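Hello,

I think I submitted the protoporphyrin IX containing FE job twice by accident. Can you confirm which output corresponds to this input? Input:
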Amino acid sequence: MREKKGDHPFYPHHVIRNAMAVLGAIAALAALAGWFPAPMERVADTLSPVPPEPTAPMWLMRPVWLVDRILPSSTLTILVFAAAFLFCAFIPFIDRGQEDPSKRRFWVAVPFLLWMMFIFVATWLLPKGIFLP
Amino acid sequence: MSLATRRDRRESKGILHDFLEWVGLLGFIYGPLDRRLSVRDALEKALSRPIPHISWWGCFGGISLFLFLVQIGTGVVLMFFYVPTDPEAYHSIRYLNGTAPFGWLVRSTHHWSGNGMIFALFIHVIRVFVTGAYQRPRDLNWMVGMALFLFTLSFALTGYLLPWSQTAFWTTVFWTDMIGQIPIVGQWLLVLIRGGELVSGATLTRFYAMHVAVLPILTIVFMAIHFAIIRRLGIKEPL
Ligand code: HEM
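Support: Only one job matched these inputs. Its output is below.
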């Protein structure tokens, strides 16, 4: 690897900086764990056919829940998420970065960044009040 | 007799001395093991390797890796207490949370580190995209990364059921129902994932096996490939 301005040797510079970051991260995790411990809820009621009380889905499912509310059928919902995943996976084949990069990049970037924005807003910013099913 | 062996004979200071050097591990750097394996050369080369300066955005892949290592450490401790059956699963988590010394700390760290890993990955993917690092020749690594992303989501979804609590159970019902809506293969997939028509103890057993055995192995293998490719191609310069 060629050396450039701003490069620094792995040892000791990088090792020390890494060690400081790791210690900081461990402290942050311990603080989160201490102030916001993982919730301990009621045991699952497996006999009831629907949730017996308002039950919020796991945060990861919030975008799915939202799209499912908007679209008329769950089949469409799951197809939307599958299509979005496939689109993201094949981005390198759509924008190969050779012929006329700027235009291709634009048409890949718009849907990708919009989708990421939607996931971000739906997952982390949406207000409470989402309940199953 | 090869040159190395002859030199080794000459430099040997007796059986006990050699043996102590081996077990004392110093032999790896200065003693007989270094003469066989050239460890010191390799170490010096690796330790003085120049590291390019990268911005904070470039650290999120490494942060994901760090959090994954925390997940392994805390996860193994959790396995000493967790019972993967219905309804003992819930009671074992209750015990861990309330009675076992520092059980709450280990469990909550696993919880936050897991959630944090998904968040870090989210930023990692955006930074890779924005720097255009998905393009050739890194297209292969983008695909490997996509597999890692799927594995990480699967970690979250399988792990979430394990406490066998109300949200755990109904979230699993929700997303597996969704899988059942896939045309043609949906019902078959649903039964495969649940281990039957309904979410039950069989689902718990399946998710546990995925969470602690299948997914960790897959993830570690794919991470090794991911990092090998990065070592080979280097980090892409910002556009
Ligand atoms: C468990 C998951 C993952 C881990 C631990 C991980 C780790 C890393 C690390 C440490 C780097 C070095 C640079 C950096 O940190 O930004 C990197 C680069 C890269 N990652 Fe990941 N990654 C993961 C998932 C992903 C995903 C989901 C994608 C994309 C879909 C991806 C695509 C890439 C690409 C293309 C590079 C090369 C970037 C460049 O050369 O500039 N990775 N990854």
